[in-house]
Each structure stands twice: as C-alpha cells, then as structure tokens.
Amino acid sequence: MRWSELIEKVRGIDLGAPGHVPPREHVLALQSLLTQALSSPDCLLDCIERQLGLIELGAEALSKPFYLDDEHNFGVRFPHWAPYMGMSAHEHYEWIVSAVTYRALSIYTYEFEAARDERVLRPRNRFEARAGQAGHIYRAGIHNPWNHGAEWAGSIHFYSLGDSPRLLLEGEPIAGLDFEVQALLEQGDWRQIELRSRLSALALQTALGAAKACVDHVMCQLTLRGALECLALSGSTRVPGILVRAYELGCVENRRRCIELIAAHDRRRAKTWQMELEVAERHFTELLAAADHYRKQGNHDVELDLARA
What we know:
Blueprint: H1 3-11, H2 24-38, H3 41-57, H4 59-63, E1 67-69, E2 74-77, E3 80-81, E4 90-102, E5 104-110, H5 112-118, E6 123-130, E7 134-146, E8 153-159, H6 188-208, H7 212-231, H8 239-249, H9 252-262, H10 267-296
Helix pairs in contact: 1-2, 3-7, 3-8, 7-8, 7-9, 8-9, 9-10
C-alpha cells in the first residue's frame, strides 16, 4: 500500500469531528489500515520522501503536522526517536492511533482517572512495541513513548484534530505530566539514560547559544538522520534515489552516513561523494584558518556561513 492509498482509505472512515468522537470501531478500522500499510515498504518510503520535502522547506514546516486533513478530522505526525530518547507523559483526547515504523519503542501508560481526580501521575502499563505494531487511545488517555535502544527508532501517529491538553488547564499542576518522567521510571538505568539525554540537550542548547538559525538547522539534520536510519533497514530499489536527495540536504555527518548507505547500491557514486566531501572539508578547514588569522590581526568582523558544516 502506498501513502496516497492509505490516506484515501482513511478519508473513507468517519472519524467524527472535533468534539464529536466517532464509534470505537472506526478507530479500530484506522488502526487496521495503518498496520496493513506498514507491512508494505513503499508506504514507509513514501513517508520518508514526504519528510525530505519538509526538510527542504525548513524547520518551520517540520514543526507543523506531517499531514493535515481538516475536512476528515485527522492529522499525522511522523517522528524519529534518537537512541535513549523519548517524550514525557502527555494527554490525548477523542482518539489517536499510533504505530512503530521501524525498530522498537517502549510505550508507558498512566491511570487517567488518578490524574484527573487525584492530580497524580500513576503508572499503569508498559508495552514493548516493534515495527508494524499499532495501538490506540480512545476518548482519553495518558502515555509516553521511549526509545531505550542504542539505535534510532520511528513511529507514526494519526490523531483527531480535537486532541489538545486539558488536564494542564484544570486545577493544580500534575507532577510529571508533560515534563520529564524519570521519577516515575523504576529502574535506575532508565533514570540515568533520561538524565544523560537531558544533559545532552542542555549541552547542545548551550553550545549553540540558543541561536534560532542553528537550532532550526539541528532540528532538520536530526530529522534527516532519523530518515537515513530508517532507509538503512530497507532493501528497496527506491533507496538509492532517496539517498541522492538526502545527500543534498545533509550536513557533513549526514553526508557521511549517506555515503555508507549508498555504497551497498552504487560504489561509484559512493566514491564520488567521498571525494566531494573530502574537498569540501579541506575548503572548510582553510576558511576556518583564514578567519582565525584575520581575527588574530584584530579584524573581528569576519563571519562565516557554518550552516552546512
């Protein structure tokens, strides 16, 4: 099944409207469709190509829904999860259908009634979901995904356009909701993983000086890296063509990854890219040396475009 076919079939399901929840059977029908679509490598590759288009448009486009259909009441998100990274516990309303697109994620759920009535976040279940497996929240629920693995993972989420936080707007704050969930995870190694992730994010923000242009660039490149790791698992003949497009969008590290991946399909192109990259790196080193030379001479107005470095 291709992405366009999936969307056409989803449009054929009555998913209600914001504030009007459809029958659960309709949500289950969407879940079944998504599972079928992910069994085909073409649907996932279509999503990667669509995401490369968003990367071309920049971070603002990436921050918006991956796909939006106001008429049929659904939006789509298509995130990648870096090693040892995840999301804090958060609310969902009306309905949401989620699936793992590649590798595996841990999904934590929490007792909604306890959060609503007692203002506490109480763990309920932990599910281990592998590529192609899907699940849903109907009417109301709290969950968070986490990648405990040393490799990238991915997911896709179809959600109601009426899905928005509510508990956060009612009464006292709930510790852990939409914040770090490390205090709720029982095993110490998980807490260390989360702590390391938070420190890495803080170090990144500090190193970039919170400059918006740099942060936007990092957001695009991290998304691209996730897309590349997804491509690494595919044996489709479409992969080389997608890698050519990804290479043009990549920073140095992502271009190196493109070279590693294209080598399995086209050794000549891999060699050409490697030579291009070596020339570019030498040129960049020369630029840095020249800038340093001029600054040492008192010229502090030298500026370099380091965006693609």
